[in-house]
Amino acid sequence: MAGEMVSLEQCLEKYVPERELKEITRILYGRELPIVRVGVIQNSIAAETTAPVSEQRAALHEKITHMTEAAALCGVNILCYQEAWTMPFAFCTREKQPWCEFAESAESGPTTQLCQELARKHNMVIVSPILERDSIHGDTLWNTAVVVSNTGYYLGKSRKNHIPRVGDFNESTYYMEGDTGHVVFQTQFGRIAVNICYGRHHPQNWMMYGINGAEIVFNPSATVGGLSEPMWGIEARNAAIANSYFTCAINRVGTETFPNEFTSADGKPAHKDFGHFYGSSYVAAPDGSRTPSLSRTHDGLLVCDLDLNLCRQVKDRWGFRMTQRLDLYAASLSAAIQPEYQPPVVKDMC
């Protein structure tokens, strides 16, 4: 019949405002199925590295605000930016000034305030990796990811657990290994964690986020082609398989040139950049599948729908957690870190 109502849902969508519709849907159907739409952003810097710090940060704030607006139009629930997104990746220079001036409070700095505004406006959880200045503990610096809830509330922070000392990536000039452990954030859209950059090379780091219950682990990074690109498509994908969660690998793009030359302690001539950030951000699932990568050379927003049911389904199918033997490795590692430890190597004496 022409006058038949197609469905209750269609009627509700047509006549009920969106805010009230969400509550009506919750009452009618209970908890929504755990489908979450994530977004990851890769980008180049927005101003010359010679510009004043305030101008460089403001330019990136403006750029990322526009990209966040695009993510909101796509219906993204959780959005993650790249490592140290508010600045050039100047840690290669080992210069204190002006780069330390980019550091700001994780709890109340201008970048966190911007993210709170955007998160509240778009009902979106935002993961914002910054250079943190901890004024409570002697103005120490940290490589930190700030997590802001979709209500605009500062949820917490996760600091980089593993610091590289590889060529230009000698970041201990600025900050040391983090002290927040393997924190997992329970958001309205799922349990998330942040494994910052170099931590992706350490399987135990990935493992602990899984043990602590993460369903999605973001890996905001800054890495160049001559160093890590062959590993890039493997590590986060392997971590998703081994730990039965989703992983989101994020890298910046472009080549950043600095005012003063620096060396890499490798005998090669001094230089003003240290290579091309190759982008190629992607998302991997616990069943081993993954998305195509974003561009190697251009800014980009990757949007992906994740069915969080898959985390448990893969655990049930493969039993990796059940067969993990953490007791065995806990005992072995406890022994291995002792000064008197001797590896149990059986030698052929014949």
From TrEMBL:
Protein name, entry field: Beta-ureidopropionase
Pfam families the UniProt entry points to: CN_hydrolase
Protein's pathway: Amino-acid biosynthesis; beta-alanine biosynthesis
InterPro entries (alphabetical): Aliph_Amidase/BUP, C-N_Hydrolase, C-N_Hydrolase_sf
Family: Belongs to the carbon-nitrogen hydrolase superfamily. BUP family.
Lineage of origin: Eukaryota, Metazoa, Ecdysozoa, Arthropoda, Crustacea
Gene Ontology terms: biological process: beta-alanine biosynthetic process via 3-ureidopropionate
Keyword vocabulary terms for this entry: Hydrolase
SUPFAM superfamilies: Carbon-nitrogen hydrolase (SSF56317)
GO terms, molecular function: beta-ureidopropionase activity
Gene3D superfamilies to which the protein is assigned, alphabetical: Carbon-nitrogen hydrolase
Reaction equation(s) it catalyzes: 3-(carbamoylamino)-2-methylpropanoate + H2O + 2 H(+) = (R)-3-amino-2-methylpropanoate + NH4(+) + CO2; 3-(carbamoylamino)propanoate + H2O + 2 H(+) = beta-alanine + NH4(+) + CO2
EC number(s) from the headed UniProt entry: 3.5.1.6
Lineage top rank: taxon: Eukaryota
Enzyme class per UniProt: hydrolase
Every CN hydrolase domain range: 36-308
Record-annotated membrane-spanning stretches: none
